Amino acid sequence: MKILFTHSYFLKFDAKQYKAAMPYPPLGTLYVMAYLREHGYEVKLFDTMFCDSAQDIQGTIDSYQPDIFISYDDGFNYLTKMCLTNMRDACFEMQQYAKYKGCKVITSSSDAADHYNDYLEHGADVIAIGEAEQTVLELCEAFKNNSELDLISGIAFIKNNEIVKTLKRSVIKDLDTLPAPAWDLIDIALYKNMWLRHHGYFSLNFVTTRGCPYKCNWCAKPIYGNRYNSHSPENIVLQIKKWQQQFGFTHVWFADDIFGLKPNWLKEFEFYVKREDLKIDYKIQSRADLLLEEDNIQHLANTGCNMVWMGAESGSQKILDAMDKGTKVEQIYKATGLLKKHQISVALFLQLGYLGETIEDIKLTIGMVEDLLPDDIGISVSYPLPGTIFYVKVKEQLKEKSNWKDSDDLDMMFAGTYHKEFYKYLQRYIHKRYRKQVAIKSIRQFIQIPSFTNLKRGLSLLHLIPKERMIKNKLTKIEATAKQL
Predict the structure, then answer these.
(1) What pLDDT digit, counting tens, does each position of 135-175 carry?
(2) How far are the Cα atoms of 231, 233, 237, 302 from residue 278, in angstroms, in the given order?
(3) How far apart are CA 451 and CA 92, in angstroms?
(4) Which of 239, 427, 460, 469 is deepest in the core (most CB within 10 A)?
(5) The overall pTM is greater than 0.85
(6) Is 90 exceeded by the pLDDT of residue 392?
(7) What does DSSP assign to residue 396?
(8) What SS3 class is residue 365?
(9) Angle between helix 420-448 and 452-459 (nearest 10)
(10) How far apart are CA 446 and CA 441, in angstroms?
């Protein structure tokens, strides 16, 4: 049987990400393709990343004539976890065309797991829910043998005009038993060229783990759940070394929800990096409470970590507690100091508009950013995802809109403390205020050590100050309480 794989992330449908020009291949898709190939199936990838429309796939379906069409999203990329409506509509269109052409259609994604009835109504025969390598293999075997689906775990399908959802699929505990992602089946040059053209280097994505054991009440985990399983450090180092020699990347994004959580993993990782003489820079995601041991920070620094994106979320302890975040504001400060001490850049994820957040809480977040002056910030507003406590609390308010169109939508889909337009301008205000503080710091540094970079950042004050004032005035008009900012 011939199997055609695709995914539903279209870079051109997301203007903010297209402008950023930092595309990463669909890693989850490459994992499942390698798994099926290992079990004797002929697999082919149609990569939608650089396509103009969902219709672009039609020629490949017509010429390849697959028996099975599988839309399998990358569950490691936060952009696919957000369930953007642009991508959902594209997936519907692709799977409907494949169904029209006589294919059996399987779909696996965070959005499909949460809205399997919608996907089944738009052309899918089966939705694979959760970690799906084993599920997809069993489905392909069932289609090949024309056998029943009822005993396959982790799926939803229609039988006798009713939707059947089977038992939950258990996750794979030993990730090293999986074959390495099928990097050879993707046109890596498209990714490399965009990176080099816009940034002067090439970055590729890997994962060392699946899942997250923490229980922030706004974070959904429809694919890997709360279980946490790891590849061995040796496995990851050997993977990176092999593909670095072939593709020539110099930077890695470790797309784990939490990097290096397993005891002694970072220490062993450093051992294998040095044994294989691996030269790489990389960035990770982590939590403040996991970045308090200086030995671990040293392991990160010794292996090439040059940036940590920390899920700070808020400078208000009240809001962190309301989120069930399990971290303390003082831990964010301490972790930032330790990372900077070891010359590792710090970037903070911030979340605005969580239930109960007031101007005083917002001021604490702004104060934290200005105290720490991280190397970058990423600001979002609270986003209700199915399967979370937060979603349950605001579900009744999600009537007109329950998903963003693209990653720059930033629409408040529930009734926050203030008007939704306030939050759109607030995130811009915080960005401008942050950039202003960075510029002021750069001027001071330029006085001490003249450099073109510090001069350029310092001169940005000329346009940052008026823009900040303009946005603040807009905030004041939208909400009277904004005067307190």
Answers:
(1) 999 999 999 999 999 999 999 999 999 999 999 999 999 99
(2) 18, 13, 8, 11
(3) 52
(4) 427
(5) yes
(6) yes
(7) G
(8) helix
(9) 140
(10) 9
